[in-house]
Amino acid sequence: MAKEPVRVLVTGAAGQIGYALVPMIARGVMLGTDQPVILHMLDIPPAAEALNGVKMELVDAAFPLIKGDGVVATTDAVEACTGVNIAVMVGGFPRKEGMERKDVMSKNVSIYKAQASALEQHAAPNCKVLVVANPANTNALILKEFAPSIPAKNITCLTRLDHNRALGQISEKLNVQVSDVKNVIIWGNHSSSQYPDVNHATVNTAAGEKPVRELVKDDAWLNGEFITTVQQRGAAIIKARKLSSALSAASSACDHIRDWVLGTPEGTWVSMGVYSDGSYNVPAGLIYSFPVTCRNGEWTIVQGLSIDEFSRKKLDLTAEELSEEKALAYSCLS
To answer: Highest taxon of the source (predicted)?
Structure first.
């Protein structure tokens, strides 16, 4: 039996990340090569022509998974959100030179407030939402506030990019396959205050699974340069490309949704920005990145991991930043 198509919304679809993401979704990278999709692409009116160009290319690529009238390209949020099962929120207002954080926050609060109500009123029940646009954690929190009928567990933000960056750094350092490294953790905010934690990470070796710390044998690097490299990788890519990391962001967005929908492998966890329930003494009511496992379309925070003093400080620091962002966002609402 052929599967029913899944409707996937990508906002900001004419932008760089959107342009990298839609062909991945159409190829089955996100939901599997046997899952037909109907793509809903939304962008702002000034990008309407470019968006139509993307739609033309999706037709030209003749993707087998795109069914019938399988591409909706629109500047109307209601049309874009109608009936969607998965929403990847890539559209946002980027910080420009000379802009204060409050100005950027204020623009994004109004965008996410509007899109929250369109999703709430028109998306399919149990729609899963992934916020990619920065400030991703706080944009997701605003979306949650203004879409109260969407379950809190269905609203997440992307820290899988940071998680994958951490895996990549360890794999390069040890000269091993990245697929043999697992269970790094990104704690907190998708910003330079995030804490990439390798204390529970392992590498699959010929002699079985070994802790990353034991193999790297360089705590100074793991507690220093490794952390700052992952924290500042986005800026390093902008410096190199003169554009932000689109390919890796799109790929990790697919990873995030795929694992959430189809499940994480046994014994492996991933990092997702999710609504805090107070686990690990992180204040409840923040969207904060935790280690999670996924089964049957639901994520669960991995419990009982030991947190040393060095890590505790880092977890608290990024939580403080998120609490400040939350206060700033709420002040934009008044």
So the answer is: Eukaryota
Cβ neighbours of residue 162 closer than 8 Å, sequence gap 6 or more: 186, 190, 194, 196, 230, 233, 271, 289
Task: Give pLDDT tens digits for 64-78.
Answer: 999 878 999 999 999
Instruction: Give me the pLDDT at residue 67, please.
Output: 82
* Catalytic machinery residues: 190
Q: Is the pLDDT of residue 97 over 80?
A: no
| Range from 67-76, 245-254, 277-286, 320-329 carrying the lowest mean pLDDT | 67-76
